[in-house]
Amino acid sequence: QVQLVESGGGLVQAGGSLRLSCAASGSIFSSNTMGWHRQAPGKQRELVAAVGSSGSTKYADSVKGRFTISRDSAKNTVYLQMNSLKPEDTAVYYCHAEVLVPGGEYDYWGQGTQVTVSS
Q1: Per-residue pLDDT for 7 more than 90?
Q2: What pLDDT was estimated at residue 1?
Q3: Angle 6-7-12 (CA atoms, 0-180°, nearest 5)?
Q4: SS3 helix, strand, coil % of the chain, rounded to 5?
């Protein structure tokens, strides 16, 4: 059984910063791509940022230059540093990981953490 546990969400004023963390635990051999998605009320879930096992990164255009994704592969943990936050960044943020476990590689999701940016 693999669990992704997120932390770091909260309420912040526009222009502020937050750092999200997501740790994968369980019978894990390794983690491949890890990333963050978000879903605002009435909108579809969208990719925010992702980082591969090699360290390559991908960002949504809306967060480029403001958000930074990083990982600690030894700890199967991914981070999202969010700076210069805007009200439109308000959403539930979900951690995602492709995890190699006994039996194969599977996708796992965290429970979500709320990020609210006030104007």
Answers
A1: yes
A2: 84
A3: 130
A4: 10, 60, 35
Residue 97: pLDDT above 90?
yes
Q: Which residues of 72-105 are buried (b: 16+ CB within 10 A; e: fewer)?
A: eeeebbbbbebeebeeebbbbbbbbbbbebeeee
User: CB under 8 Å, gap of 24 or more: what pairs does 69-72 form?
Assistant: 69/35, 69/36, 71/34
Asked if 25 and 92 touch (Cβ cutoff 8 Å), the reply is: no
Helices (H), the chain: none
Residue-wise pLDDT tens digits, 20-59: 999 998 888 788 999 999 999 999 999 999 999 999 999 9
For the chain, how many residues are written?
119
The answer for residues whose C-beta is within 8 angstroms of residue 46's C-beta and 6 or more apart is 37, 38, 39, 60
| Residue 35 vs residues 14, 24, 86, 93, 119: alpha-carbon distances, Å | 23, 12, 20, 10, 27
- The amino acid present at 56, given as its one-letter code, is S
